[in-house]
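Form 7-S
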Amino acid sequence: MAELDRHISVWNECLRIFEQNVDPKQFNVWFKSIVPVSLEGSTLTLEVPTDFFRSYLEDAYLPIIKMTLRRVIGPDAKLLYRVHPVRKENPMTFSAAHSNVPENKAVMLSTFQASSNPGPFVFPGLQKVKINPRLNPAFCFENMVKGECNKLGINAGISISDNPGKTPFNPLFIFGGPGLGKTHLAQAIGIAIHDMYPDLIVLYVTGNEFKTQYMNAVQQNKLADFMAYYMRIEVLVVDDIQELVGPASQNAFFNIFNHLHQSGKQLVFTSDRSPVDLMNFEERLLSRFKWGLSVELSRPDLETRLAMLKSRCAREGVSVGDDVLELLASKIKTNFRELEGALISLMASATLCHEEITKELVERVTGNIVSEEHNEITMDKVQEVVCEYFNITRETLLSKSRKRQIVQARQIAMYMSRNLIGGCSLSTIGMELGGKDHATVLHACNQVSDLMSTDKIFKQYVSDIERMLVTVAR
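Output:
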């Protein structure tokens, strides 16, 4: 019995130390409501009311938590959190920030140049190293909500996870606007592969980080070590690859791409635009981005937004009325990130200010976000203004009519969408304007530019419509 109660006595000792080092009011709010669950070896599991609670606790008190656990349990102390489930959902377990995250096995790397200055990855004399996969356990498939906006990407990602490097989806190129889940999906693929094939070396890196690492390697005369490091990776996930600008770093990446792809290794990229829309990239690299599957993540519909909110509430251990969630989902339509941020703001108000989550609180929290959204230029507004200017219906604009005025109106709508709406790909524009492909949209944009330089009346059309749209956005 004493052994079964060991976790309680250990936690009580920790509480005694916390009470001596934390403000009394903060101690009552953030430590007294924690329930010790178990102590297995050096791993202590604690139950907390919500994931927001867990996150805030670590942000504010991580140093003293680490110090106290090591003092009471020992230097190998580890901490796990269990979020109290809502209704009948299974409990969610989270590693503490200082606990182990997914790790790759140790690998052998050859050091090509001995130097007094260590390279960015390989130190002279060190042959066996561990490559940190840099994966966030929260970005897993289980925490993704599937909808029409991301169904193809998730299905392709699961297929890749089952058989990395051996599907037609290599590379997988994920693109779309901000906040639509590109990073989450890319990391979920890496996490799933790591779980299923723990011997594979997985690495997540951003395009900007790759470029910086390359520059540092060149400056330290360690380019050979840099190339050897990346060519050892078996699942390479590059986020925001549009940031990989510069001929030298692109040339290095081209060689790494070729080596990994030819060796049957898996490549996953994300970008805020499709391969055809990437600027300042070598054509040979762009052609390789198109070898596998390009998947666009679009804006979530109301049903998917509502499902995401319900899923997040279950993960957080928070009960929120369906009417409140429906109002929040109807208020914020742009992307998952803004929607999730608004939900966290609601939970923060409820937790820190002891307010009930009501429709009135939703209206207050989302006020600034929604007012900005109303002023945003969208494809619907572009179509509305173009139709109004040319005195045609939206059905006519989206039809297959080849009448000169209708064709020009459609081309202007494509041109305005590409130039005034951020993160809008050619394929998305084409799909919204009559189901056209990206080549048709690109041709339309070039046609509008050419006519503006040669036809003063046509240029006036475009200027008037642009002025109307900019006025709407103010």
